[in-house]
Protein 1
Amino acid sequence: MDLDKTTHTASAEAYEIIDIGGSRVGQSCRKALDEQFFQHRTGRCPFVDDMLMSSDAGLAQWSDLNRLPNYYQTSEEITLLEKHGAAIAAHILPGCSIIDLGSADTRKIKPLLDHIESRACAVTYYSVDLSRPSLASGLAKLATQYRHIKLVGLWGTFDDALEYCKSIASPRFLMSLGSMIGNDRWDDSIRNLTAWASLVGPEDAFLMGIDSHFDPDKIWASYHDEGGVFERFLRTGMAYTNDVLGVEWWRDSDWTLGGEFREKPLVHAFVFTAVRDVVCPAAGISFKAGDRIECYEGHKYTLDEMDKQFAVCGLKRIGRWKSPDGDIYEHLLAKADSV
Ligand SMILES: C[S@@+](CC[C@H](N)C(=O)[O-])C[C@H]1O[C@@H](n2cnc3c(N)ncnc32)[C@H](O)[C@@H]1O
């Protein structure tokens, strides 16, 4: 692979960012739109992948959104990692490569890295993200705090990261915090997790943060803040489809936003509904008033359902920790046939 590397070594700031496919993120987003928005599956309405919500502008808004008082998904997982960070970090040994899938502003990972640093344990922290500015600002913050942790940004998609991680030697400690993996429709979750499980060798581990809340009021309040921060974030994602498609087809005033629950499993989905006909021949887009676009689904699986996912994907659970404030869990996984 011919990869573009940028190294930042100014004073205390030392990290590098490797372009593992990030400069082609627009094409990856286009592919996701082709597969789920234009050629959506029978019985499903057009769906916009979470990748579209993670533009540079979208992730800048994400940092505000995850600090909203009712957005328990971030605050409870941080509390969990603060409380159980030492026990989790005990599985990370010197020489380990930590790979954080979808790191965003790196706020969550800090309690774990603090424990590792306090043991003077030399490791490399790879943070994977779609947005280069988000990677750079997250790593710059971490770089001022750690002496024993080498910091590397992997700029690209999860598919790019899966390929790149084959070149990173074991022991590897993979992390999917914030229900990034295992939080899709069942078949999609199994397909994604199986792909990552194929990377997990006998010396590796995989930490998965999963939201197993089932209280509709708490979930609803987390996604529907009064100030409309979440709505602005999603609308920024929809506007980004204009950049990806190269056509100004999306106009905020054409669409209203709502949310809905589905059952078995419990899913919260956001739904944009057209308030008038929306037609853009240049993009191959034609909606009637009342047509829907779905995005940003949150699937809430039980602990048993998660264990089933792990088993189907060739993984076994070797540890589990719960948030003191709610039902956010970290599941620690190993290859199923390892001792
Ligand atoms: C909602 S934020 C969650 C961040 C963090 N893991 C947490 O728990 O707070 C989603 C992050 O995943 C990244 N992301 C989403 N889809 C991705 C994909 N297909 N490939 C790479 N990164 C992705 C986004 O860039 C963003 O940083």
Protein 2
Amino acid sequence: MAKTSKNEGASEAARRALEAATAKKAAEKTKVQHTYTQVGQQSTNKEELLAITRANARPYRIAAIVLWAVAIVFELLAILIFFHKIEFKFTTENPGWTIAWLVLLVLDLACVIVASRLWVKSNHLDPASAANKTKFWIHNNLGVILSVFAFLPFIILILTNKEADKKSKTIAAIAGAVALVVAGLSSVDYNPISQEEMLEAADIDTVFWTASGTVFHAYDDCSHLNHTVELLTGTSTTAIEAGKTRLCKTCEARALREAEEGGAAADSQEPEQTQDTTAATP
Ligand SMILES: [Zn+2]
């Protein structure tokens, strides 16, 4: 019996050693070999930098405003069709009327959602100043405000109309309310950034970013960069010019942690150096 338990103990240790080796191999595998492309900084002061971010955001702002206008047009058409101000071949009893205004309402919703996402993107490329709280709120919640404009008039006009029959009024009001809620929720910027926050991050010498990402990183071995081979590198001002307006949260936490550790013990900071052996027992 004693022999068996000893064997079991030995195989258990072997199994654990094998597991550790496999985990180490897997960890090494996820470490990507990056390639770096150095990007030059264009701006030399705050005004120049803000001019570049404004220019970066402009196409998105214009597209958002155009789409919001189109959404309002769809809403007006939906109202006109609901009240039969636009003549189709449909009769009043024909459900084609319902389908027509419902389709317009869906088009209205689609435009509002896309416009809001473009607006959020433009705000991330060119954040508004938080100096004026009201202005900052309106700027970041313009999508929510315009969602109200895109659906509330439709709902109010339908509910206050005396001529339309009760059933189609109820359907229209519910459809309008659902569209309003969906549009409003999808227009919220859950992670807004202010111009001040952006400028605060604009003084780091060497940072890294990817072509498709939305943030820049202080460390090229950040876990968020594990799946990207091609990295762009430059100053954080250059990253902002490239549309990456904020520092990655993981890198920020790590920088703070390292600064704290550096303050406590300056020499015990090199994790590569401490090659502690996994086989502790002889
Ligand atoms: Zn990072």
